[in-house]
Amino acid sequence: MSDTPETDKAERMAFLQEHMVPTEFARQLERERNQLREIVEQRLLVGAEIHQKSQELLCKVQILEQERNQQWAIEKAMEEASK
């Protein structure tokens, strides 16, 4: 901790006043940031939904492939039996 806290505080305040962003510009930046955040959140939700649906479709494809392979095995067994 500094042994001159009052001077340190005055120095920080002078720096902040010298480098202060105009209030209306800061508000505009905040609004734009909030809009972009909302867009990103919406896209993340849509992306998660797409991912979930793709996983469901992959499961269905796997089931259909298993059923197809079973059908092929049955047909092959029937051909062998008829020879």
Structure, described:
The chain is mainly α and 83 residues long. It is 89% helix and 0% strand. It starts with a helix and ends with a helix.
SS class: mainly alpha
Q: How would you describe the shape?
A: rod-shaped
Order of helices and strands: HH
Number of helices: 2
Q: Indicate how many domains the architecture comprises.
A: 1
The fraction of residues in strands falls at under 5%
Secondary structure: number of strands: 0
Q: Would you identify the regions where 5 or more consecutive residues have pLDDT less than 50? A: none
Chain-averaged pLDDT? 91
CA-atom Rg in angstroms: 33 Å
Largest sheet: none
State the end-to-end CA separation: 95 Å
Residues in helix, %: over 70%
Question: Layout of helices and strands, plus pairs?
Answer:
Layout: H1 5-18, H2 23-82
Keywords, please?
83 residues; 2 helices; mainly alpha; rod-shaped; single chain
Summarize the entry for a quick read:
With 83 residues, the protein is mainly alpha-helical. The chain is 89% helix and 0% strand.
